[in-house]
Predict the structure.
Amino acid sequence: MHTDPENRQAQARPATSGLGRRALLATGAALAATVGAAAEPKASRPRRRDAASDTPPAIAAIPFHGPRQAGVTGPQLPATHISAFDLPSTSATADRETLRNILTALTHTLSTAAAGTLPDPRLHTGEPTRLACVVGVGPTLAARLALNVPAELADLPPFPGDRLDPARGNGDVLLQLCAADRWTLTIVAELATAAAQSAGAVPRWTQSGFLPHMPPGVTPRNLFGFKDGTANPDDPTAQRWVWGPPGAHENATIMVYRRIHMDVAGFAAVPRDRQEKMIGRRATDGVPLTGTAEHDDPDIYAKHPDGSYVIPVSAHVRLSSPRLDAGARMLRRSYNYDDGPTDRGLLFCAYMRDPSLFTRVQTRLSTRDALNPFLEHRASAVAYILPGTLPGEPLGARLRT
Ligand code: HEM
């Protein structure tokens, strides 16, 4: 959905075994189209499927290696599994070594999994593995081990209405796996967890999530039925607000995770036009109430002739508008979750250079958002998302562990 052009350098690995030359050429052409679409900057990407895309897109592997981790830059795959681990917390010296070992073990397992060469027969499906990973380090561990992380990395303050379960949040090492299918995700999560555990990591929590399967360039929906992720930054804007400044952290970012319970039935009972005023966009196509196309910027200053705002004062997109934060934007790549009939919601996953942006937005939302009667924040985590890595080098090599 949103791919860093720098990841183009790494070659996708097509499934070629057993194909004749003609089939191979056809697959190659379709593959090139798919990879090209994924790698193209968002701003210049066509948003509708063309005639050629009526045939199912060819499946391409996603390179693990690159300057930035593919789980942030690559297409947003429809299934996710997030896990957090703690370190045993013995001495700083011992924990530094444990962290190095965990990151080395994860790098090995995840890069092998992404390349489709893990020996586990359960992964030999005959198709390339579509896997994208995000590995990060929590603020408490970073402070305890004096790691080389940005000064902005910090835990979030409490917000009004929070009902956070500490057993489902925080953690020393955060791992997000995203895959095209639930099967791959489950097996790779099992193998990555085993690798981390044998290097000394203690599992803390896990969380699964999902998205509707969407063609490239189409915004997925959340369980309230609205498109979620429309107003994400294009690449130049992300360079300014999502990725670190030039220097040690320029290919790193900070992730904010919130497990937000949603009263889906309660929201569904609200008439459609009121729902749209709560969000500030139309439900069918995501068009802002002040615009004519999905990607029009919501104009929070536009007024009706009677002087009232077109996007109401408590609308979600007004309170989260970058216009209230000097243009600062976060990159949202959230997932839905379904943990039984009474617990469904959103795994809010957002990347930003400075998590104080999240704090400012959530401070406004938590007191005034029209969605609040239907939401409850139940878990939270922050992590420094490591720069990507090249073959032969483990993730986190520059953490100075
Ligand atoms: C379950 C909770 C939430 C739901 C259902 C939700 C839903 C939405 C929807 C439908 C949009 C409009 C489409 C889009 O631009 O993606 C949106 C925009 C946005 N949301 Fe949320 N959101 C939730 C939580 C949050 C939280 C916790 C934050 C940050 C504190 C946040 C920040 C934003 C931002 C920054 C935008 C883009 C505003 C713009 O640039 O126009 N959202 N959200």
In short: The chain is about 25% helix and 15% strand. Strands lie at 79-86, 131-137, 173-179, 202-210, 253-262, 331-332, 335-338, 344-352, 375-385. Confidence is low (pLDDT under 50) at residues 1-53.
